[in-house]
Amino acid sequence: MPAARDLDPGVSPAHFFGAEVRRAREAAGMTLADLGAIVPCDASTVSRIESGLLSPAERFANACDEAFPQMGGWFTRFYANSPRWDGRYPRWFVDWVDAERRASVVRWWEPLLVPGLLQTPEYARALFKAWQTTGDEDEVENLVTARVDRQCIFDRPKPPSFWAVIDEGVLRRRIGGAKVMQDQLIHLAEMTERPAIKVHVIPAEVGAHVGLLGAFAIAGFDGDAPEVVYLETPDEGQTTKDRATVAKIILAFDTLRSEALPRGASRDLIMKVAEEYGRDLA
């Protein structure tokens, strides 16, 4: 068992975590590829995490605890207690991530993209590559990891209820190519099979509707805690608890849901479009 340490997760957690992974791996006589096979990921990903260039995913921390039982679960504990990983979330998004984690119900409207909590890594990667200006692959991978990690809320013993309403255009906007879209839509349909997750699609024939003004999400909580709203903007998103704004957004969401197809019909449409992408690959 390693000696006890006074750890400060706020000081370069990615570098500290990576150094501990390398120390434990070398002590165990494992190669980068050996550890990657347990995660699973490729050796280059392990190398970047050990160097502090890439923030780990939760599954990576879990795999390290499996590979190095002598650490007594240190990797998972350190991961969970280090919310400010370098490059993980922009400051303007941190309040929403916190609300999302604590919420008992999340309602999400998206007119352009699959909601982040339902995105595949490949779909998210295509988006971040399109948005970035530096060409830094490690930066993209950090962003993908952070987005995928948020989806762990669905794996809790009591996951939040998640209601997503999306425009049909989301299904037909080709992000990353036909294969990426086919896999994304199949994943989306599979997620709707979970009792806590409901996805409704507003068909194209509805035409103009209030949701075309922009994406938003609502986090609701047990007890008397006020609801939190997240609003997408072209620059930085905004999180607010303002009662008037929250009430307006809730009304907009209910209106959009009334325009959408039922859950089963929505899933059928999602799979129909997925099959169309499949034919493009044939």
Briefly say what this structure is:
The protein is an alpha/beta fold and 282 residues long.
Please characterize this protein's 3D structure.
With 282 residues, this protein is α/β, with parallel strands linked by helices. It folds into two domains: 13-80, 434 Repressor (Amino-terminal Domain), CATH 1.10.260.40; 91-281, Endonuclease, Chain A (2-Layer Sandwich), CATH 3.30.870. The chain is built from twelve helices and six strands. It has helices spanning 13-27, 32-38, 43-50, 58-67, 74-80, 91-102, 121-131, 137-150, 168-172, 178-191, 243-259, 263-281; strands spanning 105-110, 161-167, 197-202, 216-220, 228-231, 238-240. The radius of gyration is 20 Å and the shape is globular.
Structural class: alpha/beta
Number of domains: 2
What pattern of helices and strands is seen along the backbone? HHHHHHEHHEHHEEEEHH
Which CATH architecture of the largest domain is right? 2-Layer Sandwich
Contiguous helical run count: 12
Q: Percent range for helical residues? A: 40-55%
Report the end-to-end length measured between terminal Cα atoms: 54 Å
Pick out its properties.
single chain; 282 residues; alpha/beta; 434 Repressor (Amino-terminal Domain); Endonuclease, Chain A; 2 domains; 6-stranded mixed sheet; 12 helices
